[in-house]
Amino acid sequence: MNTRTGVSPVIAILLLIVIAVAASVLVYLWVTGYIGGISEAANAEVIQDKIKIEGVQKHQDFDRVYLIWVRNIGETKVVLSKIYLLDETGQTVIHMDEYAGEWPLKPGEAQYYWFYIPPDVDIVEGKIYKIKVVTKNGFEAYASFRA
Predict the structure, then answer these.
(1) CATH for 50-146?
(2) Alpha-carbon gap, residue 108 to 144, rounded angstroms
(3) What percent of the chain has pLDDT over 70?
(4) How far apart are CA 81 and CA 105, in angstroms?
(5) How many CA atoms lie less than 13 Å away from 30 in the CB half-sphere?
(6) What is the pLDDT of residues 29-58, one digit of tens each?
(7) This prediction's pTM
(8) Is the four-CA dihedral 37, 42, 45, 50 of positive or negative sign?
(9) Over the stretch 61-120, which tens digit does the pLDDT of each residue have?
């Protein structure tokens, strides 16, 4: 008499289902943990630098000088590195980044910065321009004003 013993087909199917479910749970946990880590790292970069341009006004005593009021609305110190004057199409008219040193702002602090427009740059009275302020980490803030 020849008897074969083995796992019944019902038990084999149940074992395969358990293995598949366990593997899919492990893959799900690995993927969500990995994606969560990536999004947290990306959010940390964005949260570090937050600035806002609160106003732009022409200096009352000096022609071709504008004061740009910038506030740090983030939770860490930011360092401003560049200021741009853009026309209505977004093209750079002039930028200021050649000055020695950089301009730090503590959290919650507001400061004004001088922006001098050289005589060789034509500024049309009444025309709308944009100011772009950039931090050392690359965060940008924009404001529009009328010359």
Answers:
(1) 2.60.40.10
(2) 22
(3) 82
(4) 11
(5) 6
(6) 777 776 666 556 555 554 578 899 999 998
(7) 0.63
(8) negative
(9) 888 888 899 999 988 899 888 888 888 888 888 877 655 457 788 999 999 888 888 888
Task: Find the angle CA(50)-CA(52)-CA(58) to the nearest 5 degrees.
Answer: 150
pLDDT digits (tens, 9 = 90+) for 79-96: 888 888 888 888 888 877
Both tokens assigned to 95? 């930028």
> Residues 59, 63, 101, 43: what is their CA dihedral angle, to the nearest 10 degrees?
50
Domain locations in the chain?
A: 7-48, 50-146
Contacts made by residues 70-73, CB under 8 angstroms, sequence distance 24+? 70/105, 70/110, 70/111, 70/112, 70/113, 70/133, 70/141, 71/105, 71/108, 71/109, 71/110, 72/105, 72/106, 72/107, 72/108, 72/109, 72/110, 73/108
Tell me the two tokens of residue 51.
């600035």
- Whether the CB-CB separation of 52 and 73 falls below 8 Å is answered with yes
